[in-house]
Design brief:
- The complex is a heterodimer of chains A (about 250) and B (about 300).
- Helix content of chain A is about 30%, strand content about 40%.
- In chain A, helix 6 crosses helix 7.
- Chain A has two domains: about 190 residues, Immunoglobulin-like (Sandwich), CATH 2.60.40.3880; about 40 residues.
- Helices cover about 70% and strands about 5% of the residues of chain B.
- In chain B, helix 3 runs antiparallel to helix 8, helix 3 runs parallel beside helix 9 and helix 5 runs antiparallel to helix 10.
- The chains are: A alpha+beta (about 250), B mainly alpha (about 300).
């Protein structure tokens, strides 16, 4: 029923889609190799329209989101003189990486109602369904996720980072950090006018381990026993090798 | 030079890891401790996820201990018989410890328990060793002969065995019990247990310090090897790239450490280890007592250490 309603809402919004995004990415695949040190992706494109430009400024929002996973957020409190974890809340889905770039300050390019509908800003991109009723301040846990991830650079809002020329050509560059997790990175481009979304475009950046990284990772999951044996064999060989080398040095 | 770790999924500086491995390796060869109790917190600090740090550290300890044991075997400072007895107890204890660990994890608060375990054991052992070695150093300075070990309850138990390398003729029961206790603690605390094993061998079993180091290393190889396999097959958290980087530094360090250890007087060796143990204990206690700057912490749902 909900889906049907959503579909109807989309159809109702269709006539307004006079402006569409034509997107280009400098790369749609990121290969994590052994010496992977972060990556920069240039997101660029144009606004295609069949009718003349209407009044009001056009804005562009670019949002890149890493794969979502549930995380356990724990809170410390002082008990018996020491700081211990007292409560924990599971935040159902939080992206491992999230960046939003906009043409102007966020509050000007998107109204909060539209934000709620499309889930663009960082707090909206995180989903927390049911905190246990014993937890008083569930929002504080979601805030903590955002605060910690912002501090580590995994989440960021870059206001004014998207350049838009002649209300038609836009571009921005997004830096992906070195400690990237594997997965599909959903890339969304939203065109807004007066705080309302007029067009949305979505694509995927494929982030994958390749070569040695890929091989080791698959081996550790598919053949854990042999992977363990291999780790031990390397450890023993290295231990023996160093011992033999030192003995050789002492004699020589 | 940045290297991306396939299991930990972070990018780290290779030279930093080599250096850390080397430093901890020197300590390992000198004192017969695996170095896990130092390395694991260091790895947390540079951003390796805790579960990966604990598992990979076990693998690295196998390498540095093996390298150390070979160096000690050449000097005939490994009591293989005693090591085997300790090991039998140790493996049994480790199995019990893993069960206990999972039970505590189900209850929650396992993190706190591990930390408290560290603080209590490191504190007691460090203080004991520190004062004992201090007394021994003072006695040798005054020219008093070192006290002969008392024949206490340890010597009245049945199943006596002769341990030639250690120059002991004692019952097999105390080493077995020491092995089990260390195995349990090692599994709970995620370390090789050398820092508990070494003092236990010196003070409870009355083994000579020189033999203790090699024997402890011998026993650690098997316990950590067992732990590595356990982590690799159940949690998939052993990062082989991280392990290689750490162990290249570690094995070289262990060789150097073993040579330094042989040249140093036993009392000084013990007092240094005591100071190190107390320092780690102090740091952990400090973290528990002082208000953290971030009251919230993140962890993967339903897992992790």
């Amino acid at each position: 029923m909900l889906r049907l309603a959503a579909l109807l809402a989309c159809m109702a919004a269709l006539p307004a889609m006079a402006e569409e995004v034509v997107l280009g990415l400098s790369r749609d695949k990121v290969a994590i190799t052994t010496n992977f040190d972060g990556s920069e992706i240039l997101v660029f494109g144009a606004v295609k329209r069949e009718s003349p430009i209407v009044d009001g400024t056009l804005d562009v929002i670019v949002a890149i989101s890493g794969p979502s996973e549930a995380i356990d957020v724990r809170r410390k409190e002082r008990r018996f003189g020491i700081w211990i974890n007292v409560e924990s809340v599971v935040v159902d889905a939080a992206p491992s990486y999230y960046t939003v770039a906009t043409t102007r300050p966020f509050s000007e390019v998107l109204t909060s109602v539209e934000d709620l509908r499309h889930g663009v800003s960082i707090p909206r991109a995180i989903r927390s369904v049911g905190a246990p009723s014993t937890v008083k301040d569930a929002q504080a846990y979601t805030d903590a996720v955002i605060r910690i991830r912002k501090a580590s650079g995994a989440y960021s809002v870059q206001e004014g980072a998207v350049t838009l020329d002649e209300q038609t050509l836009f571009s921005t560059s997004i830096t992906l950090p070195a400690n990237l997790t594997e997965g599909d990175y959903a890339t969304r481009i939203l065109l807004t006018r007066g705080g309302r979304v007029v067009s949305e475009f979505e694509t995927v950046i494929d982030v994958r381990k390749v070569g040695l990284e890929r091989w080791l990772y698959s081996l550790s999951r598919q053949q854990p026993f042999w992977y363990g044996i291999m780790s031990l064999a390397i450890a023993i060989a290295a231990g023996w090798g160093a011992s033999a080398a030192f003995q050789f040095l002492r004699r020589g | 030079m940045q290297i991306y770790l396939p299991i930990a999924e972070v990018s780290v500086n290779a030279f930093l890891l080599l250096g850390l491995g080397g430093m901890v390796g020197v300590l390992s060869g000198m004192f017969g401790v695996g170095g896990g109790f130092l390395m694991t917190p260091l790895l947390f600090f540079i951003g390796i996820p805790p579960a990966v740090a604990v598992a990979t550290e076990a693998n690295q300890i196998v390498a540095s201990s093996f390298s150390g044991v070979l160096a000690h075997l050449k000097r005939k400072t490994v009591d293989l018989k005693m090591g085997t007895v300790l090991l039998i107890g140790g493996l049994f204890g480790a199995a019990v410890g893993v069960v206990l660990f999972n039970y505590l994890k189900a209850l929650g608060q396992v993190d706190l328990l591990v930390k408290l375990c560290y603080v209590v054991f490191l504190g007691i052992i460090g203080a004991m060793m520190f004062f004992e070695s201090l007394r021994a150093i003072r006695n040798t300075k005054r020219g008093k002969p070192p006290q002969r070990k008392k024949h206490g309850w340890v010597h009245k138990l049945p199943f006596k065995m002769r341990f030639r390398t250690s120059g002991l003729y004692i019952s097999a029961i105390p080493p077995l019990i020491v092995g089990v206790c260390v195995g349990v603690l090692a599994a709970i605390m995620g370390v090789g247990g050398g820092f508990i094993m070494v003092p236990a061998m010196i003070y409870i079993l009355g083994m000579p310090t020189k033999v203790v180091v090699g024997t402890s290393l011998f026993q650690i190889i098997f316990v950590t090897g067992f732990t590595t396999m356990l982590h690799a097959t159940t949690n998939y958290t052993v990062d082989i790239v991280l392990a290689v980087l750490l162990l290249v530094g570690g094995v070289i360090g262990a060789q150097i450490g073993a040579r330094i250890g042989v040249k140093m007087p036993a009392e000084q060796l013990r007092i240094l280890l005591a100071i190190m143990v107390l320092a780690v204990c102090g740091k952990l206690a400090f973290d528990l007592l002082v208000m953290p700057s971030e009251l919230y912490s993140l962890g993967g749902a339903g897992g992790g250490h």
